[in-house]
Structures are given as structure tokens and as C-alpha cells.
Amino acid sequence: MSSKADIHPGPSSDSTAPGSGTDIAAHADSSGRLATAPAVLGIGAYLPTRVLGNDELARLVETNDAWIRERTGIIERRVSAPGETTADLATRAALAALENAGLAAHDVDLLLVATITGDEAPRATAVRVQHAIGATEATAFDVGLACTGFLAALVTAEQFLRAGGPYQHALVVGVDRLSAITDYSDRDTCVLFGDGAGAVVLGRGEGELLDHEIRVDGGRGDTITTRATRIGPAHAEAPEAKGPYLTMRGREVFRFAVQAFCDRIEQVVQRNGMTLEDLDWIVPHQANQRILEAGARKLGVPMSKVITNVSTRGNTSAASIPIALQEAVADGRVQRGHHIALVAFGGGLSQGVSLLRW
Ligand SMILES: CC(C)(COP(=O)(O)OP(=O)(O)OC[C@H]1O[C@@H](n2cnc3c(N)ncnc32)[C@H](O)[C@@H]1OP(=O)(O)O)[C@@H](O)C(=O)NCCC(=O)NCCS
């Protein structure tokens, strides 16, 4: 695994130990800036209403409900309606997160959208969302790192907030409309993916983002890729590619994902002087139930600590972690003070972890 392109800010402060109370960590760094660890102030999610079940897919490709359930744990996924854009999904999640935080759009200073399925080339999805919600004061841009995108956007937003100045509140959205780049004649991939959006509002408050690490290995980039872009062939050897459809070497991705799940959590826990027992929850990227179970087994944590919703959401790429987290907050599993590891892996190849106290 290459480390040259890693983003790793290291432990956030001197109050990273579990049970460090609800004090907000604050200290001056070597440049004299006040480095204050931001917290999640609110969370929201949006799923399109259209349900795509396994039986419907079995009418499109040679597959069946039993195979899909056994190999992936997925029963159904959501897909956007015709005309429903990526920005539409992101906007709904963003508004829900703001409402949950008790803040208004004009309070947002930074709006980041993690996506690989933006609607148009020149205008970032974040810019469309900025306009749609009326966040007129917000700097807005997209972050693209596939299934690790939400964590990459989270760490980016954290750096803005730590720098202080005009940046007091950030809205971070993970959204993907994978149905737009899924080949519904390819049974190897079409059973896995769905659409959705999740968002968090960051600022000063209870809780704390403790540590992050993002790693990429571009040398293995063709493990999950598209043979064409929206504007032409992506590779010289694939000029006949049908569309910007996802292709992948499934078994290789599976092995990579299980290893990434374990490595990232083990390292972040150790680096912060914690043990696995100190983690209340692991919220992984929802790729495949078998990946999550194999990762938990290898790591030695019970599945009761792993939040999963892949059975009804499928893999929604950058949206999967914030959607799963939102559902666990909404139903009361995640409580203030809990220590949570968010862990992601996917296209790039990329992998990342974020450790936080809720
Ligand atoms: C894709 C994945 C579910 C396939 O499961 P698997 O157990 O590895 O299955 P294999 O690829 O070995 O295929 C086994 C057989 O099932 C077939 N098969 C593949 N997709 C099928 C489907 N949807 N329905 C029925 N059969 C299918 C294969 O053609 C193969 O047939 P063969 O033995 O006759 O060649 C699994 O590899 C996976 O989840 N990988 C990770 C994918 C992922 O998460 N990607 C995104 C990461 S962010």
C-alpha cells in the first residue's frame, strides 16, 4: 500500500482518550492558531422512494434472489426516479442535516459534496446544492474518492474548521446515484449498487472528531473502474465501451475490503491509546454483508457492534456511511459520548477511517 498520497492529520488533540468527557479539545498549535476539534452537530439522509428488489433484477439479468442474498446480503436497493438528479438527493440530505443541527443555510461557511456521480462537468454538485438550499455564504466544492469520498470530505472540512477564520460551520454531504453508471445487463455488478445521500453538519459543540486517515493506492486503480467517462473512452484499449459503467474484479475487491476494514480500525484504535472494546460502534462502508462479517471476524469484534443496512440500501458509495450512521442515530443506538469508527474502502483503490466521539 502506497503511503505517499496519504492524508493523515494524526491524533487531533491531547484529549483523544476514551472517556475524556465532553470538554471540547482546544490548544494552540506551533503556528499559534487555535486548533479546536469540531463535532458533528446534526445528521440527515435521503433515499429515493423507488425500490429495486432482487426479483426485478432477476428479470433483467440471469440471477436470482437467493444468489444475491447469499453472496451479498442485499434484498433491495433504492434508485432515483427519472429526472431526479444527484444534486436533488444531496439537497434533501443537506436540508435534513441542517434541521437536525438547528441551523439555517446561511450559517454554512463550507459545503463539501463527496460524489463520483455529479450531474454535470463544469458545475460541482456542491455548487448546485449551495444554490438549491440558499447557502449563499458557503465556499462549495466536490470531493471525489469513490466509497472513501465521505471520509475524505470530512477530513477536508475538519481542516477548514480547525483553521478557524470565517469557517465555523461545515456541511458535508456524501451522495451517489450509482444507477447512472450501473450496467443493468451486467450481473456481476448491477446487483450491488443503489442511490442515496447522507449529510452531517460540523461545528463546535458536544462530541469531537478525534482522528482520520485516508490512504490511496493508484497502482491498483483498475480493480474498480469505468471503461468510459461521460465524455469518451477512459482507456485506449476500450474505445467501444458502452457507457461510463462500473466494472470491477469482485474477488480482488472483496479481499482488499476485508483487509482495509481491519487495518484501518486496528491502527486508529492503537494510535489513540484505545482498545477495540473502547469502540461502541463501527460504521463501515456498506459494500456487501459478507465483507462486513469477514472484516468483523478477522478483527475480532462482534457483529452487534457493526452497523449495517446493506440489505435494504445496497452499496451507495459515498453516501453509505452517513446514511447508516443517520439511521443508527435516529433509532437511538448511537448516543452522545459513544466512540465510533467510520471505515471506508473502495475505488482508487482507497481506504480510510475516521474516529469520533459522538
Ligand atoms: C461481486 C461478488 C458479490 C461476487 O461474489 P463471489 O462469491 O466472489 O462470486 P464469484 O465472482 O466468484 O462468482 C461465482 C459465480 O457466480 C456467478 N455470478 C456472478 N454474479 C452473479 C449474479 N448476480 N447472479 C448469479 N450468479 C452470478 C459468476 O459468474 C460465477 O459463476 P461461475 O462459477 O460459473 O464462473 C463479490 O465478489 C463481492 O462482493 N465483491 C466485492 C464487490 C464490492 O463490494 N465492490 C464495491 C466495493 S466498494
What can you tell me about this protein's structure?
This protein has 358 residues and is an alpha+beta fold. β6, α4 and β7 (139-143) form a beta-alpha-beta unit. Strands 3-9-8-6-7 form a five-stranded mixed sheet, sandwiched between helices. Strands 10-17-16-15 form a four-stranded mixed sheet, with helices on both faces. The chain has helices at 54-58, 65-72, 86-101, 125-133, 149-163, 187-190, 250-271, 289-299, 310-313, 320-330, and strands spanning 26-28, 34-36, 39-46, 50-53, 76-79, 110-114, 139-143, 170-177, 195-203, 208-216, 224-226, 228-229, 232-233, 246-248, 281-284, 339-346, 350-357. 29% of the residues lie in helices and 25% in strands. The longest helix is centred in the last third of the chain and has 22 residues, at 250-271. α3 packs across α4 (125-133) and α7 packs across α8. It is globular, with a radius of gyration of 19 Å. The protein is built from ten helices and 17 strands. Bound molecules: coenzyme A. Coenzyme A is lined by residues 63, 67-68, 71-72, 147, 187-188, 191-192, 248, 250-251, 253-254, 257, 287-288, 291, 315, 346. Coenzyme A (COA) binds next to α2, α6 and α7.
Task: Give a nutshell description of this structure.
This protein has ten helices and 17 strands. With 358 residues, it is α+β, with helices and mostly antiparallel strands.
Form type: globular
Distance between the termini: 30 Å
Indicate the percent of residues in helices: 25-40%
Strand content: 15-25%
- Strand/helix succession: EEEEHHEHEHEHEHEEEEEEHEHHHEE
Secondary structure category: alpha+beta
Cofactors, ions, other ligands: coenzyme A
Mean pLDDT: 90
Radius of gyration: 19 Å
What summary fits the major beta sheet? Answer: 5 strands, mixed
Number of helices: 10
Strand order of the largest sheet: 3-9-8-6-7
